[in-house]
Design brief:
This protein is mainly α. It contains 1 helix and no strands.
Length: 55
Amino acid sequence: MPEKGVIMEKLTCFKAYDIRGKLGEELNEDIAWRIGRAYGEYLKPQTIVLAATCA
């Protein structure tokens, strides 16, 4: 869990239709956690389905 009160730098991982970026540079565990947390807080979903593309 990230520290409270930490100011984030400008995020470059948000594109027009998705979220993507270089792992460890534009995307990391902290950013993924914050995006997921914000999604849950905003939508308050009852069920969540996650998907990933494996190359």
